[in-house]
Design brief:
The structure is a homodimer.
Chain A (H helix, E strand, L loop, with lengths): L4 H43 L2 H32 L3 H34 L8 H24 L2 H31 L4 H33 L22
Chain lengths: 242, 242
């Protein structure tokens, strides 16, 4: 076959696009797994299911392995293709997105592990609020990933704004748990674990906003910056003691 | 002046080395500021000093700005210099190191904010253990940064191993705080905040080990991987209720 320089260039461009798409596919896979693990973690918490919680903790190793794959792919692309402008920004964003997803995965696994301790909790304790908060951050993370993959800055901005609701739910859950502990010292151990489950969920929401920021950076170099509306009163929460 | 191609090359190499050194200087500055903020946060906790705690929370914005500067410098270097091998690895490591330091800075600011709530605590409560743990992670973070900047894999490995001691101190502090809460419901609010101060300190230790891993990656491409000895029993801690 007679390969002209022009068709070679075209070939190179196509191969590069394929490699960028492969990077996105790895990130999409990571995002899906973190979301699935979160769903499983909430079910384990709800059913006080120790075995399931242990499986999730193990499944986080797959998320870590995917992060490693993203890093290797990105570094290879940087070395071999020496990209500039949009492509360079896409690869740097990919590296950082993988870090955020790995971090979210850690918080999911942490919540599942806390669920092990929580397995002995009295039935019904704060279950509904934790579940609601968990579904909320799972939804935000999925939306952030879609915005990232679709380079959809409008959806990204909506995710970024919505995190304030997660902070509000977190603050009220924090107060609820403190009140339980004051009413009945026997639930102090369990509720302390649930404080951390709630905090981990809130931090998964933070990763969703970080990914939303990356979506904007990737799409146009815009930075939403560190001025995100933050409304987490749990840091300052106090409850009147009886 | 007559510039030969050879001296031009030399000039280019020197300029690139200068830029890499500038990237390291930004990271060193970030590390120093996070360490200083941690020292201030511990002093604020110890002295129950609300004003100082607020200053630290504000100082974290400088750390965030430095992270932004690292990102911009790294992307510019990638675009203009199109580095390969060691240099590429150094820049990618720099990007990730800045993320870890920003994260550590967040945990310091979080600990300081929790200290605001803690300002009403009864004197002496768990102060010594928190201070000891704080100094421990501050020391680990400083050692990790030195190992990173000096490309010293041996010191990096020592930091990576030492984090297990932080986990042990964290577990025992967690139990101590739960015991306080069970003995006296009036300290539940304050001790809940201290649980998070302790957790934030433990996570600063995690960032130190992450940076130690980057030091090895940067020096020789070696990954210490995700098999770090982890011994944090606080996730499972339970205390017998009276």
């Amino acid at each position: 076959m007679n390969t002209t320089p022009a068709s070679q260039d075209l070939h190179t461009v196509r191969a590069f696009d394929d490699e960028l798409a492969a990077l996105d596919a790895l990130l999409a896979d990571m995002g899906r797994r973190v979301g699935d693990n979160l769903t499983q973690a909430l079910a384990a918490l709800d059913g006080r299911d120790r075995d399931r919680a242990q499986v999730i903790s193990a499944a986080d190793a797959d998320v870590d392995a995917l992060e490693q794959a993203v890093n290797e792919t990105a570094v290879r692309l940087l070395a071999l293709r020496q990209p500039v402008a949009d492509d360079l920004r896409g690869i740097v964003a990919g590296l950082r997105c993988a870090t955020m997803l790995e971090r979210a995965g850690d918080y999911v696994a942490g919540a599942a592990r806390r669920g092990l301790a929580e397995a002995a909790a009295p039935p019904g304790l704060s279950g509904a609020s934790v579940q609601r908060m968990g579904r909320m951050v799972g939804d935000l993370l999925a939306r952030a990933m879609r915005a990232y993959l679709d380079r959809d800055t409008e959806s990204a901005r909506a995710v970024w704004q919505a995190d304030i609701e997660v902070d509000n739910v977190h603050s009220s859950l924090f107060r609820e748990l403190l009140t339980y502990m004051m009413e009945d010292p026997r639930v102090i151990g369990v509720c302390s674990q649930l404080l951390f489950v709630a905090k981990n969920l809130e931090r998964i929401g933070d990763q969703a906003t970080n990914i939303a920021e990356l979506a904007c950076y990737r799409a146009g170099g815009e930075t939403l910056g560190h001025t995100r509306p933050k409304h987490d009163l749990a840091n300052y929460a106090s409850v009147d003691v009886p």
